[in-house]
Amino acid sequence: MRGETKRGGTEPWIWALVAVLVVLAWQALTVNANYAGNWTGLFRTGWKTPVPERLAPGTYRNAHPHGYDGQYYRFLAHDPFLRHGTATDLDTPMDRSRRILVPLLAWALAGGQQGAIDGAYVLVILASIFAGTYFLGRIMVRQGRHAALGLLFLAVPATIVGIDTMTVDVTLAALTACFAWHWGSGREPGWGLWFTLAAAGLTRETGLLLAAACVLAALVKRDYRRAAFWGTAVLPALGWYGCLHFVIPPAGGTPLSVPGWLWPRPQLGIVMRAIDPPRYPLLGASVERIVRALDALSLLAMMAAAALGILRLRWAKPAAIRAALGLQVAFLLAITDEVFWTPPYGYCRPFAPLFVLLLAGDSAGRGRRVWVAAILVCALVDVRVLAEMETQGLGVLRWLGLG
Questions:
Q1: Which of the four pLDDT bands, split at 50, 70 and 90, describes residue 2?
Q2: Domains of the chain: which residue ranges?
Q3: Is the Cβ–Cβ distance between 321 and 340 less than 8 Å?
Q4: What sections of 35-151 are H helices per DSSP?
Q5: pTM
Q6: What value does the mean pLDDT take over residues 106-130?
Q7: How far apart are CA 41 and CA 217, in angstroms?
Q8: 309 Cβ neighbours under 8 A, 6+ residues apart
Q9: Count of CB atoms situated within 10 Å of the CB of 372
Q10: Taking a C-beta distance cutoff of 8 angstroms, is the pair 295, 338 a contact?
Q11: What number of other Cβ atoms are within 10 A of residue 64's Cβ?
């Protein structure tokens, strides 16, 4: 760490703390300006969403009838082992319950005390932002750059969405930064990376792709012992999926069902959606044109991210990073359903690892142009994501007396 600091300037943890303070300041502003001071407003609970009876009195109801995904992870945090019928309040019980790590950490941090769980959940998200900024900063320092570039973690689209809606993808993004740092440390990763991989699989099922990348890299080297070692990192997630089989009623889904993106149908979903972005009849004609243009640019940026990932395959080292990039690009290409590419908050989140790996790429050597292009790609997606926060921003300005 000392060597890294000498080359890169200020220690990465300082910039990670700056990131947390900036995010916390924004959240405090929007909570007071837009959610009447009720921090549960961050979870975006829709006014039509069924809420567990014990949580209903203190829950801030969002103007959107169905809310957003963070509300369901909050429900899970209050009942992570599904002992109190929470599964019936989830929109897709099996999918939500698989992504247990963030809710479970919030529950554990609060010591199971119901009144402290919501605050603990916010702290888990803030800790993810700290970790993601910290590890990305250490990667930048290793490349001879300033540790402040770790703040690029805040430019990952899934990070912005996580700050706004308490979704779990920001934690997977942080774990990916940790994954990239382990493989660039100059020594063979061990148990630290194993726990990172296990945590990624418990955060979201797509996190298992990181473990798959390590296994593939070891198999290419014919290092079967290491391949088996990395392969065991998926066991905690698979074990949890198995437990869900006995907890969630069959109508909630099949725990070990294969995700649809593993068997893609030949469609040009993202291309067709970029050519014909969604319509917004409630907006004025001029505003609708702007928003649709931003949609097209954002979707083109997502395609550019895949292209940059392919370019990075030429010189990415070590093999596990190359495999992770390849799997992420393949994952993006496998999502062929046009409906998936409609909501900007939705389509950018599953690809948090791809954006992190691009930002963590060589920023000083042959890959510098790709790295700069990756920042631009993130920015184009971010503009569309931030456009979704216009109402919040105006609310904050009015609350501050500036609107």
A1: very low
A2: 2-399
A3: no
A4: 70-78, 93-98, 101-109, 114-142
A5: 0.93
A6: 97
A7: 43
A8: 325, 326, 328, 329, 332, 354, 357, 358
A9: 11
A10: no
A11: 13
